[in-house]
Every structure is written in C-alpha cells, then in structure tokens.
Amino acid sequence: MSPLLDVRELVVRYGRTTAVDGVSFQVDAGETVGLIGPSGCGKSSTAAAVLQLRRPHSGEIRFGGVELTALGERELRAVRPRVQPVFQDPYGSLSPRRRIRDQVAEPLRAQGRWSAATGPGRVRELLALVGLDGEHGGRLPHELSGGQCQRAGIARALASDPELLILDEPVSALDPSMRAGILNLLLELQETRGLGYLFICHDLAAVRHFSDRVLTMREGRLTAS
Amino acid sequence: MRAALTRAAGLAAVLALVGLLPWLSGKDPALSLLRARSAEQEPTAEALDAIREDLGLDAGPFGLLGHWAAGLIRGDLGVSWVSGSEVLPSVTAGLQVSLALMGASLAVALLVGTALALPVLVRGRGGAGTLGAMLAAVPEYLVALLLLVVAGVWLGWFPTSGWGGPAHMVLPALALGIPAGALLGRLVADALPDALDERWVELWRGAGVGRRAVTTAALRRVLPPLIPQFGMAAVGLTGGAVAVETVFAVPGLGRTALGAARSQDLPLLQGAVLALLALGLLVGVASAALRAQLLGPALRDAALTLPAARPVRVSPAVPAVLGTLLAGVTGWGLLRDPYVIDTTARLTAPSWAHPLGTDALGRDVLARLGHGAGSTVGTAAAVCLIGLVIGLALGFLPNAATGLADIANALPPVIVGMLVAASTGPGAGGAALAVALISWPPLAAHAAALAQEVRASAFLSAQKAIGASPARIMVRHVLPSVAGPVSRHAVLRLPGIALALASLGFLGLGAQPPSPDWGLLLDESADYIERAPVAALAPAVALALLAALAVALSAHTRRGGPRRAPVRKEAAPVAV
C-alpha cells in the first residue's frame, strides 16, 4: 500500500537562504511521525511546504497518490481540505473578531457543504468532539483559554474531514496542565478516525511518547536517529 | 527602490499636471492676451491664431507640454495672460519676499518649539500638553486673522499690510511660525521622555555622566526620526504662506500664486506653484540629508525608530462637549434662514432676534454659521469617504502607495486647491476634490499595516488550507479586519478635513458667495471686525472649536481606531 504522504527530496528556499535541503519521509494513515529539531532547522518550512502554503523550490509531495507540486492553485483547492494544519499560537490561529462556531463552520461554507438544516448540528458535533459545548461556540476567541482555543482550532481542522493533520507545535504555547488534555484528544481522534499526523515539536519527551517514528532535523536536513 | 520609482513618477505626474493646466482648464486666452499686448489691434482670426500658435495651445496636450517644458529648461516661464508681462521676474520678486518671510517664521518656530520643549528638557518628563497640541492644530489663517485684529488693529503695535521694513515682517512671521513651532516643540517634547527612559540613560547616570551631557545626548537621540516630520512642517509653510501673505497683503510668492489662480492667469500660476514646489522639495532633500548626517552608519545598519508622538491625554468628555456645542449651534442655526438680507439691521450687536448679531448685509450670523456647518461637514464627510476608498484601495498596494503618499504628503492642500481651482474654476466641488486628492495617505498607511498584520496571521493560513478562494479570503477575512478600524480613523479626521476645506473657502478657492461656508464667513467677517466684533469673531471661534475637536479626537485614535488584534501567548482568559 502506498503511504498517505510521500515527500521526496524537498527543497524550500527563501531568497538565497535554503531552509529545507533535500528532505524525504513518509507518513502512513493512522501513523504519527514526529519531527524534532532546534529552532530554525526547517521544521515549520517543511510543514508549510506540505500544506502548500509555500510552494517548494523543488522535490515531490505526493498525497494520497496525487502530486501536489504539479497542481495549479484551483485544482489544489479541491485537495487542500484533506490536509489540515493545527498551529502553535492558539489565539493567532483564530480570527479575533468572529465567534468560535462561525469559525468552525467556515470550512463547511468555503467548501460548499453548508446547509441551514444540517450545518449548525454538524458544528455542535465537531465542538463536542473536541470537548467544547454550545456555550463556548457563542464566544469570541479572547473569551476562551488557550487550551479551549486550541480545541476550537482542532475542531475547525476536523470540519474539513481531513486524512492528515500537520501539527505544528500544537502544545508548545500552552500551560503544562493543558498539554496532556490536548495530546490525549489528538490520540483519541487518531484512534477513531485513522488520521495520519505529522507532529512537529522541539520537546523530545513529548515526541517520543506521542509518535510511532521520530525524524530529527538539523540545518535543513534529516539526520539519522 | 520601487518606492523611489513611484516617487519619481509621481513627481513627473505633478509637473506634467502643472504644465498641462492651460489644456485642462480649456480656457482660450488668445483674446485677453491680444488686449494685453496691444489695445489697438483688431481681434481678427489670424491675430488670435498667431497667439495660440505662439503659446503652443493649438498643438494638443503633448505639444503644449513639450512647449512648456522646453521653455522651462531655457528659463522661460512664459507671459502672463492678464498683464502680458514676463512671468519669471514676478516669480523671483515674490520668491525673495517669501524666502525672507519663511526665514523669519522659522526663527519664530524655533523659539516657540524651544519654549514648549524646555520644561521637558529641564524636568526630564511630561510632554508638550494640550496647549502645544492646540497651537499646532490651529490653522495659520486663523492665527493670522487673530494677530491682525489684536496686535494690528486693536493695539496698533505693528503694521497690518504691505512689505516695507522689519516691522512688516513681525505679524506674518508670527502667524506662520507659531503653528509650525508648536508642532516641532510638541514632537520633541513628546519623544524626549521616551528617550530618557531608555536603558543607556540609567547606565550613563550610574557612571556619573553629568545631567547636561545626558540631556544633550537624549536630544541628539530624538532628533533623527523627527527630522522628516520637521521637513513636512517646513513644506507645510509653503501652503501656510499663501494664506498668511494674503491676510497681510505681503507681495510674496503665495499671494502671487493665489492671485493668479483667482484670475486664472495660468502662466503666472504655473511659475509661482513651480517655485513653491521647488522650495518644498529642497527642504525635503535638505532634511533627508541632515537625517543621514546625524544618523551616520546607524541608518544603514538598523533604522532607529521612536514611538510616534504620544496622543494628548484628554478625557472623553472633552470631544463630547465640543461636539455637542458645535452640533447645538449648528442645529439652532439650521432652523433659521441664512440668506434673508435686511439692510436696516446691518452689523447689529447680539440680540434675541439675532443671537450672534448680523453681518454686513444684515444676514443672521447664527443662521449662516449653522448652514455653513451643515454644508462644510457634509462636504468633509464626502471627502472623508473618497479618502477612505482611495486609502483602502492603495493600502493593498503598499509599494505603489508609498511613493504616491510621499508626493501627496508633500503637497499642501492650498497648493492643490489652487491648481484645481485654476483648471475647473473656483467652487465647492473643486475644493473637495483638492482635499480628497491629498487626504488619503494616513488612511492608506493604516490600511497597509493592518492588511499586513492580518495576512501574516496563522488564522489566514488556516483559511488558505481550508481551500477558500483568494476572493473569499479577501472579502470575508482581510477586508473586515481592515475596513472597520480604517473607517473609524477616517471619521476622526473629519474635523481636520473640514478645516482644510474652510481654508480653501477663506482664500476664495472653494465655495462662492453667498454660500455660508465657514471659511468664506471668516473672510467676509474680517472686514467688519471693529464694528461688529461678536458677529465677526463667531466663525473664528467656531473654527477654533473645530481645531480643538480635531485634537481631542486624535487623542482617542489609539483607543477607537488602530486597535490591534489581541495577541497573547499565555493561556489566560481575559474578560473585556
């Protein structure tokens, strides 16, 4: 069986600086691949390239058998929902001016899957899945705690029915007391939905505990681990 | 680099606009020129055609522009359409007078600025305060009129018109120098406490460096980022000079330009405006050079910045009271008729029938003030809206906008007003267009900063990852985050825009009589200040209140306008 995500010889450049220099790895469905390394080693650039938020300089990113780098912006939009990000900053990843339930509903609306009959129920379901209730849904991000915002961000990612989540340091900005809750939630979701995770972190203990395999990155390259 | 290109393009566009004035205005000066040149000659078709050909008027816009540019390079500015005399000598004569006046007013500005900054220098804290902010906001024409009335007419200390000796220079220099000096003093006084709060000051003091040395170093630390602002203030002097020279009948460049604009003597206007623009450009270049000199290598390595001038702290009650007062007067005046002429009740003192007295034609001043506010504020609101649209549009093209904004910032409203009035004829619409053309840069800068902030947020990456189209992201996420704060910002600029419109009205470049425009009221009232002081001072007081309102509102810009999205790293819920 071919892997869910197959990255080959990925190169990402910012001007003359090479942030990612020939990285190759695979992620299978239901598998968690940890990616660790010091700040500035190219972890987040790899994530941005896999999400196609930044087009790579060269290399292949094959997702579910589709070569993403070959797709145009319009075709890419059809594939994007299947790979969803969870960001580090729980507040920054939500719009400060819209209610949580609207933000979780946004993927449904943008992807043309919203209807007045089923939409609100679907949003409640998604919020319940991450441990938030309808009362949280009516609030604005700054009225929630960081952990609650991170849960809302995960609910938004799930709204697209993804197969792969790119977790870019999802617990680094959280209180230690809240980290375990979020990590357990992610494990649960993986079990019930068979999600693949690319888990980026610089906390080796958390990565070891959480991941099936761990990749180590240094100065844009993977090192043997 | 791209900003430099657009700046050059903008400058070329302004020059071309000046050169094309005769074509834009669609005026045929042949007949008036013929009369000016020789009274006897018959206005035959051949004679008129010869003049048109001589001026390059029949060659279309490009031919005209080429003709003008070629003349410019030879040092030939053409011939006045009204007097038939050479333009260049009038311009150089006016330039000499204006340069002397500006030199004197710069000296005044330095004195005023030092006086405002001195308390902060001595105490090491505080700010310029409300007085400085008020003085900086009051337009030059208002200061000029007040000085004319108080020091010139009532006290009789100085001559009030003409250009004879040093005594003639005092009042115009004060009128130009006080607002400019207040601005300089306020900028320095507000920036100093921040510089004195920096770490190095503590270190120096701990090391036993004397108070004077620390203060000098702080001053030197504060100046470089402020110098571009000083340059802008000096450029503003060229616009202020038009009003002040007109009030005091000083035969300078500004008055020459205004006279030419009013009589549509386009070659003279072109020459005078060109000289004013060159003056402004020279000041800009000089201030940039001075800044580079002061900063040295720091400019290349890392630009030094200081927080912008701190807004004056004003209780929210102040703008509320000022606004209510103005609205009250306006509402009361709107109920009365501003056009009824009663020649038996000319220049009466305030009474129950005429609460603010009557003007020279026996018209009710309160009614005129009320209706004037209605039309001035209405026009200002329209101008604000246009500025908002331009600002939002250009805010999303920051590269193109910076260069254009530099040009717009460097053009005082009065000069743009003269150019517009010369090509369309003076009128309320032209004045509104002139102010709208240059009122957008702060809004565009604000919009650009907000758009950049939104685009850089993880939240927007999430939208992209969802598969939302760029148009959807723009309309549903970027625009709402930008439009709200920028709109509030635009509303706060309304009083300032109304003041600029009034200044054009005052100079006869805006609304025309018998319209009750505030600037026009002020201009008319200046003539009867001694016989009916209350009626004459009413528009001046109203304009001063408007300036105070502008200051008080700007104090609330931070809270009401550019509010940043909350960015927090801690997981602490914060109630609002």
Folded structure, characterized:
The complex is a heterodimer of chains A (225) and B (576). Chain A has helices spanning 43-50, 73-79, 100-110, 119-129, 134-137, 146-159, 176-193, 204-210; strands at 5-14, 17-27, 32-36, 58-63, 66-67, 83-86, 164-168, 196-201, 213-218, 221-223. With 225 residues, chain A is of the alpha/beta class. The two termini of chain A are 25 Å apart. The mean pLDDT of chain A is 90. Chain B is mainly alpha-helical and 576 residues long. Chain B starts with a helix and ends in a 16-residue tail after the last helix. Mean pLDDT of chain B is 80; it is low at 558-576.
* Overall residue-averaged pLDDT value of chain B: 80
User: Strand share of the residues of chain A?
Assistant: 25-35%
Number of helices of chain B: 26
What name does the CATH topology of chain A carry?
Rossmann fold
CATH architecture of the largest domain in chain B: Orthogonal Bundle
CATH hierarchy, class of the largest domain in chain B: Mainly Alpha
GO cellular component, one term (chain B): plasma membrane
Transmembrane segments (chain B): 99-122, 134-157, 169-189, 230-248, 268-290, 373-394, 414-438, 490-512, 532-555
Domain ABC transmembrane type-1 (chain B): 95-287, 369-554
Subcellular location (chain B): Cell membrane
SSE arrangement:
The complex is a heterodimer of chains A (225) and B (576).
Chain A: E1 5-14, E2 17-27, E3 32-36, H1 43-50, E4 58-63, E5 66-67, H2 73-79, E6 83-86, H3 100-110, H4 119-129, H5 134-137, H6 146-159, E7 164-168, H7 176-193, E8 196-201, H8 204-210, E9 213-218, E10 221-223
Parallel strand pairs in A: 3-8, 3-9, 6-7, 7-8
Antiparallel strand pairs in A: 1-2, 1-4, 4-5, 9-10
Chain B: H1 2-19, H2 21-25, H3 30-37, H4 45-55, H5 60-74, H6 87-123, H7 129-137, H8 140-154, H9 166-196, H10 199-206, H11 211-247, H12 253-262, H13 266-295, H14 297-301, H15 317-334, H16 365-395, H17 398-410, H18 413-424, H19 428-438, H20 441-455, H21 458-466, H22 470-492, H23 494-506, H24 518-525, H25 533-554, H26 557-560
